[in-house]
Automatic annotation (TrEMBL):
PROSITE patterns per UniProt: ABC_TRANSPORTER_2
Classification via InterPro entries: AAA+_ATPase, ABC_transporter-like_ATP-bd, P-loop_NTPase
UniProt cross-references to Gene3D superfamilies, sorted A to Z: P-loop containing nucleotide triphosphate hydrolases
SUPFAM superfamilies membership: P-loop containing nucleoside triphosphate hydrolases
ABC transporter domain: residues covered: 5-245
Organism of derivation: Marisediminicola antarctica
Protein name: ABC transporter ATP-binding protein
Keywords: ATP-binding, Nucleotide-binding
Amino acid sequence: MARVLQLSDVSVVRGGNTILDSVSWTVNDDERWVILGPNGAGKTTLLQIAAAMIHPSGGTAVVLDDTLGKADLFDLRPRIGFASTALARRIPPTETVLNVVMTAAYAVTGRWNENYDDIDTRRARRVLAEWKLDVLADRRFGDLSDGEQKRVQIARSIMTDPELLLLDEPAASLDLGAREELLQILGGYASAPTAPAIIMVTHHVEEIPLGFSHALILEAGGIRAAGPIHDVLTADNLGAAFGLELVVEERDGRFAARAA
Ligand SMILES: Nc1ncnc2c1ncn2[C@@H]1O[C@H](COP(=O)(O)OP(=O)(O)OP(=O)(O)O)[C@@H](O)[C@H]1O
């Protein structure tokens, strides 16, 4: 077991607002975490720290082996897979699905004329097949459905075989069928012994795939609860974070929540 993320007293201050406040959190390489919390709690900001996209205003953040603020991020970034709607908006809609996934090998968005090795092409095609996208390889990204685009984003984020995979609301805006299809593939991926450490932000416990082992509930920039998923995703913890009485149920590894 190796540590992939270690935050010690991390704070993030933006425009005079404390967005994260003294967050201490450790993620190991055999753990798959889900982060939940109300709008504005700081979930995306926490993910940006883990992605080495921003530095903490205070405290220490070690991502993989590098301390943010001291390390050269050029080597670190390709070791981290990241999929979010904000990143997806930067993908040219006319680019083919195969190229969207393959360009991750060069950690670029917006430059689409690199010379690719056969090995990259083969790997991209294998990743596309794993994510049930092989038949769409030559289609334009912008012509895909929301569900297909979300799968392409994740396929792109795992193309480099990352040691840490970060997913910001991968199932947001999907219809029931597309959500379940995504969760099935993601659950299979997360459950495999070879899966990297994963941190996924979501708004709904129903969107947690199988294979996720830990949960962190963020509230107003601080941690309300963090640890093994069954200890953390309780009616008490979630009810307190969201400010209402909840019933939380788990069946066959999937969670559901509703007002009491
Ligand atoms: N650059 C910034 N300057 C000032 N405030 C910011 C900045 N970036 C984010 N914030 C504020 O920090 C808070 C946390 O934002 P963040 O996006 O991390 O929350 P979140 O939990 O992901 O929210 P949501 O669930 O709505 O996506 C919000 O109140 C947001 O308005």
